[in-house]
Protein 1
Amino acid sequence: MRVLLLSDIHANLEALEACLAVAPKCDSIVNLGDIVGYGASPNEVTERSQRLGGLVVRGNHDKACSGLTDPKDFNPLAGLAVLWTRDHLTPENANWLRLLPQGPVQIDGLPDVQFVHGSPLDEDEYVVTEADASQPLLTTPVPVTFFGHTHIQGVVKSRPGGNDFLRPEYRTVGQREHCEFALEQGSSYLVNPGSVGQPRDGDWRAAFAVFDSSARAVTLYRVPYNLKGAQDRIVAANLPRRLANRLAAGR
Ligand code: ZN
């Protein structure tokens, strides 16, 4: 089975469309949450996600923007974007976001794989460092976890005495590229497909991944998208200009 993995789209329609345009044909699709927040197309991206179907787990921005949680724990910039998004989401779309399941969640046919926004131990926890990954890798009974939340594309692999944080190595900074990782039997993995619409790993390109369960391989992708279009929309929407500027830096 081939699974298309999208995460942290953050209301960036241009980035989402660029990923979907080049993604290989897959048998199912999993969205790891944070569909909205930061970007200026929350309704368009929510409705596109609904039409794509598949499994969708909720992210912290989905919860805050749909009124499930208070944005007081967010940094000021993220908090402003939450309030803007609340004002602009249709009631139907807010309701759909509010009802998204909490991860980790599994899908039929893939018993050794699970999907969550943050950590398998806590949907809101960040797994950024090797140390952050230790407890989840040691305690979760499911060998392969796909997660998002950090916006950093990569693979964490357990090994005796520690973990390896594997980042893809790309040759360019602006072309479409991909990088494949084989998942060995007997090791546990945390895999982050990267952020579609708000990359924070220094690479401005939209990120996504494809998991091939029969080959036990993950392919990580980076795709250039209409950055200017996404930025112009943010400025026109009167969202903080910094949200537009930082898209270009991938930070
Ligand atoms: Zn996010």
Protein 2
Amino acid sequence: MNKTTITKIGVFTSGGDAPGMNAAIRAVVRSANYYQVESLGINRGYEGMIDGEISKLGTRSVGNIIQRGGTILKCARSDNFRTKEGRAKAIANLRKQGIDGLVAIGGDGTFRGMHELIKDSGIPAICVPGTIDNDISGTDYTIGYDTATNTAVEAIDRIRDTALSHNRLFFIEVMGRHSGYIALNSAIAGGAVAVIIPEEQTTFDELYTLLEQSGKANKKSSLVVVAEGAKLNAMELARMVAERSNYFDIKVTILGHLQRGGSPTYFDRVLASQMGLAAVEGLLRGEKDCMVGTRNGKMVLNAFEDIMNGQVHEIDQEALRLAKILST
Ligand code: ATP
């Protein structure tokens, strides 16, 4: 590879944590080491960058973390970094440490912050999409999404056992912020009768008709998966069904943060490893202000503008059709 003059790469995780972030940190450090470039870990994202929480990472310091959820570098949100003064402090700390390349692992907010930092400092940086929400355009998958969806499916399977034993109707709320990816695919894999996501406006009447039909079809239990970003949340939907009829024995489960934790799946570990290497090699080729993504199994680099001005990561209409056909 035609190497640039980068000598020290700073790596950090930011925004919400996602399983597989550790595998990405490991991949960045080991890839940098392969090219004889030093790595420094920045703790607590942009907040730690401002506070100067930066220390050397060697290949051994990222040993035994590939299987661990969360992030050894911690995550943080930072209002200070949104200000010019905050970023100036962060840049001064990066310069003090001799950092001349950055890899940011996080969501779209993290990318926006990175874009501002590049504009203010000229330090080349590449972003790696790490968020369970899978809501970033320019990549088929984000790190953590596969694990979080598997966790949701496992929970749905367990809920199905109890739902069946009592002939109950369960509303299960899953994470995903404004995106219905986790909800849609965990609903398909968990055999839900319906899925409510922000990308598709299912009316309450449509849902109720579906539930009635499933009751008439002699279903012994019904599971409805609701994305946290849906217009009506699981509690509201449950209340509305109960108000309309006392036919159903209704329960609500909100999975919440348990979907963020746990050991990453093989898929997220491999994806994170590939993305970490691609980010380092991108920096060494002289790329900057872009995000690593995966398209049909191949690593790609997307320009920041394309990610931010592009479409949101649209829901797969074919998956939606599948969920509907198989739920009846
Ligand atoms: P997740 O998808 O898990 O929420 P995220 O990266 O989108 O992750 P955010 O809280 O939106 O999480 O962003 C992380 C941090 O990035 C913010 O706390 C802030 O410090 C920084 N940031 C976001 N937007 C900007 C911006 N426009 N300018 C400067 N910094 C920003």
Protein 3
Amino acid sequence: MYLVLLGAPGSGKGTAGKVIAEDLELAHISTGDLFRENLKNETELGKEAKQYMDKGELVPDEVTIKMLKDRLAKADVKNGAVLDGFPRTEVQAKCLDDMLNEMGTKVDMALNIDVPFDEIVERIANRRSCRGCSEIYNVVFNPPKVEGICDKCGGELYQREDQKPEVVENRLKVYSQSAEELINHYEKAGVLYNAKAGDSVGKTSFDIAKEVEEYIKNN
Ligand code: ADP
Ligand code: ZN
């Protein structure tokens, strides 16, 4: 089973994706996390990606696609994967179709999480990431048990460079530019599933994960 997560940065797709991957025993592949790992380890790929990431721009396709291809070849992908942050453009979507086709499989579901932009800006301001394990928290909706400390690994929580307001604005702009073509791509393939995240008192990422798992079970 291959599940693609669509939705703006800050839509909660990362959190929903992790829950779904864990529950369905799929690999969780986040291209953002893969890039950040490369940054941390100061690899060539990391150095190349950093200049784009710091501005909230997309890393060039040839770099991103190669990285994903290598990741899909790892052993833990045997049951399939939840793809978080890939594809982000129609070119990437077509590439993914080809890669999966070669593996004798396909995208089974594209989950689109729709959240109003003004709410996203607020959510991202409240977001903290763990330096140790990259777990994501929201200081309002999903706070850690101890302020500033990761529940899972005890690592330090911090606000990512690309979560500054001006960078967030650019990431949302970049997202808007390709959102429609991606949604159309998966609608045409007949695998689009729209989840409405609602307002701040509405559904959480965990609710969305459960809704999707329920849907998958029944289809
Ligand atoms: P977000 O919080 O926007 O979901 P991610 O953690 O997914 O952010 O990605 C962080 C950054 O990594 C992006 O702003 C972009 O520079 C780069 N990136 C991640 N995935 C891709 C991709 N599929 N194509 C190009 N760049 C990517
Ligand atoms: Zn942690």
